[in-house]
Amino acid sequence: MYQNKRDKTRKQIINAFMELVSKYGIKEVTVKQIAELAGISRGTFYQHYYDKYAIFDDQKQMIFQEIIIQQNLFLAKKESALRADLLEGKFVSKILDIVKDKQNIVAFLFNHDDEFRVQASDFFERINQKTLTKINPLVTTKRIEIISAVIATVLIKFIELYIFYPDKYDKAFILKESRELIRVNVLTII
User: Fold this and answer.
1) What helix, strand, coil percent values describe the chain, rounded to 5?
2) What is the mean pLDDT of residues 112-126?
């Protein structure tokens, strides 16, 4: 019961934050405004978040954590199965499912968090490096870093197109293009 109430309050805070930031911009929004719109006290706000910027961090961490869980499931597979799944786009498909499930939050982060693209790029580079190292531990670190950076950059753009232009860049299109990207870049090291 306590956890349900805590989750409900967090959701109220997040919704109020997103509404206010969308309307006025992050610099203009105060904790007092967020608390008032959420129907809570400032003290309750601070029980959940250090400051208004911590809401951005919380939302990014939630999304990144879900992706890490999926990556760990993929990395637990044997190398041959991991390669096949990667080349079939199964991991990218899971990422797109997570992004679609959190579409409003992801769109909000793209639009209002100046650090989101850089942090997401760093995040995807790290997980790509981990995956590529498992596929072929003999490849040089420099090569893995470069390929990981390229894939991360393109993946961020794919996610952005998928979120903001779903009619033009639907999941099937993104998966087709990502499989080609992976085939061209990753096959060179497998």
Assistant:
1) 80, 0, 20
2) 94
